[in-house]
Amino acid sequence: WYLPHSRRRRADTYKIDTAVTRLRELGHEVDVEIDDTTPAVDFAAFIDEKYDRADDRAAYQQYMARRDMWTSDSIRESNQRTYDMLNGQPILIGHHSEHRHRRLLERLWQREGKAWALYDTAKHRIDRAWTAANFRTYKENPGTTQRRILTIETVLRRIGRELEKDGDKCSDHYLATTRAEIVEKLEEIDYWWNVLDDAGVHVWGPDDFEVGDFVAAYRDRWHEVVRVNAKSVSVAGRFGGVSARIVTHAGSTRRNCPPQPLPYHEVIGRLTATQAREQFPEVFAELDAAPARPRPAKKRGSVKLAHHPAAEGECWQWRLGDAEYRAFWRHPQDWWRGDHEPVIEPGVIHVSAYRAGNTPTYVSRGEPVDVVVAEIPIDGDVAWVEEVHNQLRDHVQTHYAAASAP
User: Which among 11, 151, 247, 255 would be 20 to 30 A from 25, CA to CA?
Assistant: First the structure.
């Protein structure tokens, strides 16, 4: 006998000791030999055996699915022949055939239930067969393989930190098994890199992109690169719900303007800015003819102004002493429709304040505090939230900065 899922893993001493104890209680002589430093099989052979077992599972599940489906069809055909013989004959109450008729219908009902249960089992086996047949495809998927490599590298860094921190306190056995684990992890990384090389997959990285390039994470959907990071690129309009084939940062709207990170392993294509203009001339012609109002940056000041988007508006908070000030601006109608046109009537910013002293934790607000201006009118039209934020920043700096100075 053997322990399932035990190859290329450290010995499960609990299960081994339990088995040894019970065998010795039965009078058997048991010798225990544990080697946690030498893998039982190399990683390539280990994976090949997994693929072979997956093929065997696929063949077995296909055979069982055909058998269950055939049995289900046979039962239902037999039942249908019996129903046809009855020809709609009702149960004759009080007749000598009543009980026999009822037992026949009960048997048919049970057999029908068994047939449909076998049908459901066959469908489940078909799904399992399909999963096993595509096991290798899933295992060697380029994105999945790259994420697996990143995970293994993370484990190696963790092991390195642990050895650097407490390596001198570890036992010789622990150090030996840890070094063996490092060797196994490096072997796994080499194997998966070879899989990517054999498949001809290009592994994207920071050196492949510049700000202004366009990347594709899905088929025929391009996003402009706003920022290049160590493990991802920030792109425009990735989750903005826009159905356009190309999304530019200049063409971003209130609905899809925040850049979103796109990990390198999810990138499937790249276009330079010149190539994008050649491939989508109508999009850039429209942007050049009617450029959108640029999105301003948020102003900074001496008062810490916290901004929190809400479902129907924007919220701000700042604190002076024991008074907590809150501002709220309700979105105008159709604010999130995604157009570039500014809103002509943006409304007002409502300001309130409450004492934030020693109130119980279950009390959200203390006693009210008078504010300088309860409703701040917004000047001009508004196209971006940052424009409202900057007007509120000017108001806060004008009326509250002096009180916040030390």
Answer: 11
In terms of domains, do 227 and 189 share one? no
State which of 228, 263, 289 marks the end of a domain.
Answer: 289
Same domain, 116 and 53: yes
Look at residues 256, 332, 241 and name the one whose alpha carbon lies nearest to residue 295.
256
Q: Are residues 263 and 191 in the same domain?
A: no
pTM for the whole thing? 0.72
How do the pLDDT tens digits run along the chain, 406 residues long? 778 888 888 889 899 999 999 999 999 999 999 888 888 889 999 999 999 999 999 999 999 999 999 999 999 999 999 999 988 899 999 999 999 999 999 999 999 999 999 999 999 999 999 999 999 999 999 999 999 999 999 999 999 999 998 888 888 888 999 999 999 999 999 999 999 999 999 999 999 999 999 999 887 789 999 999 999 999 988 876 556 788 888 777 666 567 889 999 999 999 999 999 999 898 888 778 777 778 889 999 888 999 998 888 999 999 888 888 999 999 988 777 656 678 888 899 999 998 876 555 545 566 888 888 899 999 988 888 899 999 999 999 998 877 655 5
- Residue 150's SS3 state is helix
Q: Are residues 69 and 149 in the same domain?
A: no
Instruction: Flag whether 300 is in a domain.
Output: no
Domain extent at residue 116: 44-138
* Co-location of 48 and 124 in the same domain: yes
In 230-333, where do the E strands start and end?
Answer: 232-235, 246-247, 260-263, 269-271, 306-309, 313-320, 323-330
DSSP letter string, 199-254: HT-----GGG--TT-EEEEETTEEEEEEEE-SSEEEETTTTS----SEE-STT--T
Report d(CA 234, CA 264) in Å as an integer: 10
Distance CA 162, CA 159 (A): 5
Residue 342 lies in a domain: yes
Is residue 368 domain-shared with residue 279, that is, in the same domain?
no
CA dihedral angle for residue 274, residue 279, residue 284, residue 285, rounded to 10 degrees: 120
Domain count, the chain: 5
38 lies in a domain?
no
Q: What is the CA radius of gyration of the chain?
A: 35
Same-domain status, 311 and 391:
yes
In a domain, 115, yes or no: yes
What is the C-alpha to C-alpha distance for residues 83 and 403, in angstroms, rounded to an integer? 91
| Residues 175, 227 share a domain | no
